[in-house]
């Protein structure tokens, strides 16, 4: 759904430049959404556990973030421990394996991720990071 300062929801198909990937159960995600609303931002919400990003979408977000897949992986999650991610190499040759793991186990993706209007993205775990996305 797309949200704006007026509090009305619109279908996700509405085109706007900012998108936030959230888990509604996450307090950091709820805080980020609250700040976006308080600032009157126009953005699209993606509940990434339900609307799972493809490997291509994950690679695009990583490029926008300027990060590697292991940088946005929640290594304390049960799935990460089951996969033994802490022991996986963190190098170019292993990058595709990490991206596949994120696509197959979206709960491993750090949240919230905010894509900004200028083509960049931030992991919005702090108010400062969310404001950074708003300023782009």
UniProtKB/TrEMBL annotation:
UniProt keyword terms in alphabetical order: Oxidoreductase
Record carries keyword Oxidoreductase: yes
PROSITE patterns, per database record: ARSC
Entry GO MF terms: arsenate reductase (glutaredoxin) activity
PANTHER family named among the record's database cross-references: ARSENATE REDUCTASE (PTHR30041:SF4)
Family to which this protein belongs: Belongs to the ArsC family.
Protein name: Arsenate reductase
